[in-house]
Prior knowledge:
- This protein is mainly beta.
- The chain has a single domain, classed as Immunoglobulin-like.
- The protein contains two helices and ten strands.
- The strands form two sheets. Strands 2, 4, 6, 7, 9 and 10 form a six-stranded mixed beta sheet that branches. The protein has a four-stranded antiparallel beta sheet with strand order 1-3-5-8.
- A hairpin with a 2-residue loop joins strand 9 (125-135) and strand 10 (138-151).
- The structure holds 2-acetamido-2-deoxy-beta-D-glucopyranose (NAG) (2 copies).
- One 2-acetamido-2-deoxy-beta-D-glucopyranose (NAG) is lined by residues 36-37, 63, 110-112.
Amino acid sequence: MTLGLLFFAALCILVNAEDVHKKNCSPLYSTECVVHSVAVEPCRHGPKFCAFVAGKRYSVSVNFTTYFTAENLKVAVSTDYEDSGVLSVLKTYKDACRSLLMCPVEAHVRHSFEVPLAFNKRVQGKFPVQVKLWNEDNESQACCFTFKAKIK
Length: 152
Ligand SMILES: *[C@@H]1O[C@H](CO)[C@@H](O)[C@H](O)[C@H]1NC(C)=O
Ligand SMILES: *[C@@H]1O[C@H](CO)[C@@H](O)[C@H](O)[C@H]1NC(C)=O
């Protein structure tokens, strides 16, 4: 019974979480970090973009390797609603080492973290979402990627 439930839960996760296509924010960070995969749960219409419903809760799981070691990290989730290059921050995790990750994050070791994602009801259309993680002690050490979101 318990095993059956576990299997069912695992199946649901497999069906729902999908790796979404991601882009580096800037070539600057490609020498600092590799983002291996980004899974959005749930990601309807993936993997090119994820369709979201305003007001609902989603999560973004990031699997990455840094080339730096850090003890203090920040994470910010931003969107570019107008797709015009202007980001607005949805949420900043100032103490990501407490809320999202186990620190220190060691260089050359795969790590992962998960951030919640939700859009308010005013938003509509297709636009990029940016997730950035950076070393508070040296801001040029960062992981940063975007993926496409569509809100109905
Ligand atoms: C990252 O992804 C790889 C390959 O899917 C997996 O083996 C590994 O466990 C993941 N690492 C973390 C920290 O989740
Ligand atoms: C900050 O990080 C960059 C890129 O890794 C490095 O070149 C620089 O030396 C670092 N600065 C300090 C003060 O550690």
